[in-house]
Hints:
The protein is mostly helical. It is 87% helix and 0% strand. The chain is globular and about 65 Å long.
Amino acid sequence: MFLYFRMLLNMGVTFYTSRIVLQVLGVEDYGIYNVVGGLIIIFSFLNTAMSNSTQRFLTFELGQKADICRLSKIFSTSVNIHFLIALIILIVGETIGLYFLNVYMTIPIERMGAANIVYQCSLWSCCLGIIALPYNAIIISYERMNIFAYVSILDVMLKLIVAYVLYIVTFDKLIVYALLMLMASVVSPVVYVWYDYRHFRESRYKYVKDMSLFKEMCGFAGWNMIGNWAYIGFTQGLNILLNVFFGPTINAARGIAVQLQGAIGQFSRNFQMAVNPQITKKYAVNDLQEMHSLVFISSKYSFFLLFLIALPILFQAENVLKWWLVTVPDKTVIFLKIIVCISMIDVLANPLNIAAQATGKIKWYQIFEGGTLLMIVPVSYCVLCFCHIPEIVFIVHLIVAIMVQYIRLLLLRKMIALSLVLYLKKVIYRIFLVVFFTVISLYGLEYLLHSLMDNFFVCSLICVSFTAMYIYVCGLTSFEKKFFVTKLILIFSKHR
């Protein structure tokens, strides 16, 4: 509930600030900020892999009720590794990254100076975030979701202040925005470090030289890099590909679509963030049956939460963007629709990925999953050479995402004895029924009551009502229905 409160506030502030920033910066500068900031993310693949490793090792040890000395050793080792990663990224960013920005990126010559300042601000912000990640990981491992929510709320409020200042300054607004975002990015890491130091004894850094633990954590992160390279490829890789073929205006359209998709995706990510540590802890005590149950529940409910919000967006994408933004860049509507469809496939992947990481044996999982996802960028490049249509890259991504989900299931069948038949029965079958009946009903209503469905608020209300009804009727088991009704009665009786 803390995470959902944070999400609602975050969504409201994100929508407002995005509108202001796009309006003040203009489409071209907004696209420059999006693609230059994204270039830094490419160099952070080491950090993402190590972050997953830290999260897994801390959560696993907590599940096994490890002593404070063992947890302290893991935490301090992770801090050492993250500091080393930040140093590597800083060196690579100031050499290879800077060269790529000034030689290969498609940016108007008169904006290259501002683009370089944006780059430096993004690079240093990234390095600060990397060093603070172990402190973030320990909060999630202990499932202190309220603290995570409070810090996230503070972060979005700072972004709101940044948007206001951007509106009133007269200096180069792209440069001002980059500098203010750098200053805002310092606050959250400082708060995480302060809170952890006060509440978790194991978070008080001590110099540790345990090479076996160092190698174990780095080895786990090493195999994770394949998946992280794939993620960077189909996010920032495609972003750069679109820049090279079509310029910064298309990057602005892609940036807006991804931002809106990220906001609605929080409905499922919040639920998954709360469940993920429990999946790892169940594996730590060898309770595979309960672990499988959590994977099924997390997959199904995460999809339903996302579908509940995504469906009105799909039906009213054009109206939503016009209402939200003053200027809607070309191709934003079609980008948004395809990206939302991709996110509905990807939301099913997270519980499977967490289950795989819980085992600690992720070599072949990452090779097959990440190796397939890595094909998105080269295939998209080949398709763009013959078909000069920007949305084709997202269609390629959607097709590959469906293929990879099947590969994950085949791999987990061997890793944790996950039943493919049970997954199809308890997750896919229920999802199919809800999606099929909801979409058929809504298209029928649109055919009969076209003028009514054109109204955004009426359409959204109808979409949510039909989706909720079919989730209850088709998506829940008899036990889940009984549990749901009992909880509702309990809530109402307490309220009375």
